[in-house]
Task: structure prediction
Amino acid sequence: MLTSFAFIILCTMDQNPPILRQVQAVDSWHQFKATDIDGKVREMSEYKDKIVLVVNTASECGMTPQYEALESAYTKYKGKGFVVVGFPCNDFGGQEPGNELQIKEFCKTNYKVSFPMFSKVHVKGSEQSKMYEWLIAKTGGKDIEWNFGKFLIGRDGQVLNRFGSRTKPDDAEVVDAIEKALAQ
Result:
Protein backbone atom coordinates (compact mmCIF):
# COMPACT_ATOMS: atom_id res chain seq x y z
CA MET A 1 0.00 0.00 0.00
CA LEU A 2 1.36 3.43 -0.91
CA THR A 3 1.17 5.86 1.96
CA SER A 4 3.85 8.43 1.43
CA PHE A 5 3.99 8.58 -2.35
CA ALA A 6 1.49 9.56 -5.01
CA PHE A 7 1.84 9.01 -8.73
CA ILE A 8 0.73 11.50 -11.34
CA ILE A 9 0.98 11.65 -15.08
CA LEU A 10 2.25 14.88 -16.58
CA CYS A 11 1.47 15.57 -20.23
CA THR A 12 2.81 18.40 -22.33
CA MET A 13 2.38 19.23 -25.97
CA ASP A 14 6.09 18.49 -26.54
CA GLN A 15 6.20 15.06 -24.93
CA ASN A 16 4.62 11.94 -26.31
CA PRO A 17 4.10 9.56 -24.55
CA PRO A 18 3.43 11.26 -21.23
CA ILE A 19 6.11 11.11 -18.55
CA LEU A 20 5.28 9.30 -15.34
CA ARG A 21 6.70 11.09 -12.31
CA GLN A 22 6.70 10.16 -8.68
CA VAL A 23 5.70 12.97 -6.33
CA GLN A 24 6.20 12.63 -2.61
CA ALA A 25 3.07 13.34 -0.60
CA VAL A 26 3.36 15.85 2.20
CA ASP A 27 2.77 14.31 5.59
CA SER A 28 4.73 16.75 7.77
CA TRP A 29 5.21 20.51 7.98
CA HIS A 30 8.92 19.77 7.96
CA GLN A 31 8.71 18.80 4.28
CA PHE A 32 8.04 22.38 3.16
CA LYS A 33 10.50 25.01 1.98
CA ALA A 34 10.03 28.76 2.12
CA THR A 35 12.03 31.83 1.21
CA ASP A 36 13.05 33.86 4.22
CA ILE A 37 12.78 37.64 4.39
CA ASP A 38 16.39 37.93 3.18
CA GLY A 39 15.72 35.84 0.06
CA LYS A 40 17.30 32.58 1.23
CA VAL A 41 15.38 29.33 0.66
CA ARG A 42 15.02 27.55 3.97
CA GLU A 43 13.72 24.10 4.75
CA MET A 44 11.19 23.78 7.52
CA SER A 45 13.02 20.59 8.51
CA GLU A 46 15.53 22.86 10.26
CA TYR A 47 12.81 23.20 12.91
CA LYS A 48 12.60 19.47 13.61
CA ASP A 49 12.52 18.81 17.33
CA LYS A 50 11.16 22.31 17.98
CA ILE A 51 7.70 23.56 18.78
CA VAL A 52 6.79 26.12 16.12
CA LEU A 53 4.13 28.83 16.06
CA VAL A 54 3.42 29.71 12.41
CA VAL A 55 1.76 33.14 12.04
CA ASN A 56 0.57 35.11 9.00
CA THR A 57 1.49 38.71 9.79
CA ALA A 58 0.79 42.23 8.52
CA SER A 59 2.30 45.61 9.32
CA GLU A 60 -0.80 47.80 8.91
CA CYS A 61 -3.41 45.74 10.74
CA GLY A 62 -5.24 46.48 13.96
CA MET A 63 -3.69 43.25 15.26
CA THR A 64 -0.12 44.25 14.36
CA PRO A 65 0.70 44.89 18.06
CA GLN A 66 0.61 41.08 18.43
CA TYR A 67 4.21 41.23 17.19
CA GLU A 68 5.14 42.30 20.73
CA ALA A 69 3.55 39.23 22.34
CA LEU A 70 5.00 36.96 19.62
CA GLU A 71 8.49 38.29 20.31
CA SER A 72 7.94 37.94 24.04
CA ALA A 73 6.87 34.28 23.68
CA TYR A 74 9.81 33.58 21.40
CA THR A 75 12.26 35.16 23.84
CA LYS A 76 10.74 33.36 26.82
CA TYR A 77 10.64 29.86 25.33
CA LYS A 78 13.34 29.71 22.63
CA GLY A 79 15.81 28.17 25.06
CA LYS A 80 13.34 25.33 25.58
CA GLY A 81 12.98 24.53 21.87
CA PHE A 82 10.29 26.98 20.73
CA VAL A 83 10.31 29.22 17.68
CA VAL A 84 7.87 31.67 16.10
CA VAL A 85 7.95 31.96 12.31
CA GLY A 86 6.24 34.90 10.63
CA PHE A 87 4.83 34.84 7.12
CA PRO A 88 3.80 38.34 5.97
CA CYS A 89 0.60 38.34 3.98
CA ASN A 90 -1.22 41.02 1.98
CA ASP A 91 -4.41 39.00 1.44
CA PHE A 92 -6.56 40.90 3.92
CA GLY A 93 -7.35 44.54 3.21
CA GLY A 94 -3.95 45.23 1.64
CA GLN A 95 -2.48 45.51 5.14
CA GLU A 96 1.00 44.31 4.17
CA PRO A 97 1.82 46.46 1.13
CA GLY A 98 5.58 46.72 1.67
CA ASN A 99 8.38 44.68 0.19
CA GLU A 100 10.52 42.32 2.26
CA LEU A 101 13.10 44.98 3.15
CA GLN A 102 10.37 47.35 4.35
CA ILE A 103 8.67 44.60 6.34
CA LYS A 104 11.93 43.54 7.97
CA GLU A 105 12.78 47.13 8.91
CA PHE A 106 9.27 47.74 10.28
CA CYS A 107 9.40 44.62 12.44
CA LYS A 108 12.87 45.32 13.83
CA THR A 109 12.30 49.05 14.42
CA ASN A 110 8.81 48.91 15.92
CA TYR A 111 8.72 45.52 17.66
CA LYS A 112 12.38 44.39 17.88
CA VAL A 113 11.40 41.14 16.14
CA SER A 114 14.20 38.59 16.31
CA PHE A 115 12.25 35.47 15.38
CA PRO A 116 12.51 34.18 11.79
CA MET A 117 10.50 36.11 9.23
CA PHE A 118 9.82 34.89 5.71
CA SER A 119 8.87 36.45 2.40
CA LYS A 120 5.28 37.37 1.73
CA VAL A 121 2.91 34.51 0.99
CA HIS A 122 -0.72 34.09 0.05
CA VAL A 123 -2.73 32.25 2.67
CA LYS A 124 -5.94 32.10 0.64
CA GLY A 125 -7.16 32.24 -2.93
CA SER A 126 -5.79 30.85 -6.17
CA GLU A 127 -2.19 31.73 -5.25
CA GLN A 128 -2.38 30.19 -1.77
CA SER A 129 0.96 28.72 -0.70
CA LYS A 130 1.07 24.93 -0.57
CA MET A 131 2.21 25.16 3.06
CA TYR A 132 -0.89 27.12 4.05
CA GLU A 133 -3.08 24.82 1.96
CA TRP A 134 -1.66 21.91 4.00
CA LEU A 135 -2.00 23.70 7.36
CA ILE A 136 -5.63 24.55 6.64
CA ALA A 137 -6.43 21.02 5.44
CA LYS A 138 -4.86 19.56 8.60
CA THR A 139 -7.10 21.73 10.77
CA GLY A 140 -10.47 21.05 9.22
CA GLY A 141 -10.36 23.04 6.00
CA LYS A 142 -11.65 26.36 7.31
CA ASP A 143 -9.96 29.31 5.58
CA ILE A 144 -7.85 31.76 7.50
CA GLU A 145 -10.08 34.63 8.56
CA TRP A 146 -7.58 37.48 8.82
CA ASN A 147 -4.01 38.45 9.67
CA PHE A 148 -2.31 36.85 12.67
CA GLY A 149 -3.87 33.40 12.37
CA LYS A 150 -1.70 30.93 14.26
CA PHE A 151 -0.79 27.24 13.88
CA LEU A 152 1.13 25.40 16.59
CA ILE A 153 3.37 22.69 15.12
CA GLY A 154 4.76 19.82 17.19
CA ARG A 155 8.30 18.49 17.18
CA ASP A 156 7.20 15.85 14.67
CA GLY A 157 5.91 18.42 12.16
CA GLN A 158 2.23 17.78 12.86
CA VAL A 159 -0.29 20.52 13.65
CA LEU A 160 -1.13 20.50 17.35
CA ASN A 161 -3.45 23.48 17.49
CA ARG A 162 -4.87 26.39 15.53
CA PHE A 163 -5.74 29.80 16.92
CA GLY A 164 -7.68 32.57 15.23
CA SER A 165 -6.51 36.09 14.61
CA ARG A 166 -8.21 37.54 17.65
CA THR A 167 -6.55 35.03 19.97
CA LYS A 168 -3.42 36.81 21.12
CA PRO A 169 -0.12 34.98 21.55
CA ASP A 170 -0.17 35.72 25.29
CA ASP A 171 -3.75 34.48 25.83
CA ALA A 172 -3.91 31.63 28.34
CA GLU A 173 -5.00 29.04 25.77
CA VAL A 174 -1.99 29.75 23.54
CA VAL A 175 0.49 29.85 26.43
CA ASP A 176 -0.95 26.62 27.85
CA ALA A 177 -0.72 24.89 24.45
CA ILE A 178 2.91 26.01 23.99
CA GLU A 179 3.90 24.92 27.49
CA LYS A 180 2.13 21.57 27.14
CA ALA A 181 3.87 20.92 23.80
CA LEU A 182 7.26 21.88 25.24
CA ALA A 183 6.74 19.52 28.18
CA GLN A 184 6.21 16.49 25.93
Observations:
- The longest helix spans residues 66-77.
- The chain has one domain: 28-183.
